[in-house]
């Protein structure tokens, strides 16, 4: 990375910079990384909001590109001091084929790594996922675990499998010599379920509740804890890691860090109601209204229907065998590795994260179904 004389001249690249998390990372960099000279935003789909960012002191360059195309990635990476690789196909609903998920999440990540090596970019932060760890296919709970907690990470679903392979590529690339002879320094951040402004699943659940007369029907036992983390804190952790990676390369290089904050441990549904309740929705039932076997039957029927309808229309409901299994398996983290290694503290309190998310839901045009 640039020496002190050029410290105001840093060039960052954010892949997936127009996504839910990516947009927050982009805005956080512009607000809290004073050394930025140029910020490149690389994405398959560029958002109109990017235009408003071009009036500030940092040169913002929007690059429409595909991480599966190596030459496009090389062109975007060339000259960057830091790459934050957040682009990915986040699909557990069967929208994309397993091959496409692998091509984007694994081959795309390999392209980013090779671009760093070929062009001399030394610092790479990868947005991994808790799903790299679990829940595993056996439904083993991961109860307030940390980065060193033993857990049998066994995946069959294409999404978690692709994230695990990509993370492995990133960590194994740590220490490779980049063009110019310096070592590549990599690390991976593992967010748990991210929530906050722009969360599409939260939006979908909200509209589903509106369609059902303001009611949602409990499907998950309240005893199942699911770790969640506010998107602003995940973005902040990305900014901090990117900043500290040079000074603490020996400690941080090749490491993984769970993303965490003070968001409470709750079931996925009860947690969502922290935001949807104040927006007028009600969660019916103190325990699941249907037995698990019946929910699984409905989930399997959804998967069958998706397969049958695929030639005609994409049918991708929230409930499928994978999402039901994940939602029903406790997965929470309790760690301070990021605090110990690079001084991370959540930027947003739980109260602030909750308020911001509620305001975002309230601002949604409820009539736009
Ligand atoms: N949403 C969540 O709860 C969690 C997400 N993550 C990870 O965070 C990252 C961002 O996820 P989200 O913001 O939730 O998803 P998102 O779908 O909102 O954002 C992903 C972005 O990547 C872009 N993209 C997809 N394929 C691309 C390609 N071939 N070339 C270039 N850009 C491409 C999309 O256009 C999108 O803007 C992903 O890597 C995901 O695995 C990790 C843990 C939890
Ligand atoms: C239909 C009901 C059973 C409903 O409760 C289903 C909820 C379900 C859609 C979500 C429950 C757990 C979520 C996943 C979890 O937060 C971990 C994730 C990490 C990622 O990297 C991407 C998103 C996700 C897989 C997330 C997706 C939605 C859930 C399965």
From TrEMBL:
UniProt cross-references to Gene3D superfamilies, sorted A to Z: NAD(P)-binding Rossmann-like Domain
Residue ranges constituting the 3-beta hydroxysteroid dehydrogenase/isomerase domain according to the UniProt record: 13-283
E.C. code: 1.1.1.181
Domain of life: Eukaryota
Pathway(s) per entry: Lipid metabolism; steroid biosynthesis; Steroid biosynthesis
Transmembrane segments: 290-309
UniProt keyword annotations, A-Z: Endoplasmic reticulum, Isomerase, Lipid metabolism, Membrane, NAD, Oxidoreductase, Steroidogenesis, Transmembrane, Transmembrane helix
Cellular location(s): Endoplasmic reticulum membrane
Gene Ontology MF term list: cholest-5-ene-3-beta,7-alpha-diol 3-beta-dehydrogenase activity; isomerase activity
Reaction(s) this enzyme catalyzes, per UniProt: (24S)-7alpha-dihydroxycholesterol + NAD(+) = (24S)-7alpha,24-dihydroxycholest-4-en-3-one + NADH + H(+); (25R)-cholest-5-en-3beta,7alpha,26-triol + NAD(+) = (25R)-7alpha,26-dihydroxycholest-4-en-3-one + NADH + H(+); 7alpha,25-dihydroxycholesterol + NAD(+) = 7alpha,25-dihydroxy-4-cholesten-3-one + NADH + H(+); 7alpha-hydroxycholesterol + NAD(+) = 7alpha-hydroxycholest-4-en-3-one + NADH + H(+)
Topology term for the membrane: Multi-pass membrane protein
Chief localisation class: endoplasmic reticulum
Broadest EC class assigned to this enzyme: oxidoreductase
GO terms classed as biological process: steroid biosynthetic process
GO cellular component: endoplasmic reticulum membrane
Similarity comment text for this entry: Belongs to the 3-beta-HSD family.
Function: The 3-beta-HSD enzymatic system plays a crucial role in the biosynthesis of all classes of hormonal steroids. HSD VII is active against four 7-alpha-hydroxylated sterols. Does not metabolize several different C(19/21) steroids as substrates. Involved in bile acid synthesis. Plays a key role in cell positioning and movement in lymphoid tissues by mediating degradation of 7-alpha,25-dihydroxycholesterol (7-alpha,25-OHC): 7-alpha,25-OHC acts as a ligand for the G protein-coupled receptor GPR183/EBI2, a chemotactic receptor for a number of lymphoid cells.
Protein name stated in the entry: 3 beta-hydroxysteroid dehydrogenase type 7
Organism field: Rousettus aegyptiacus (Egyptian fruit bat)
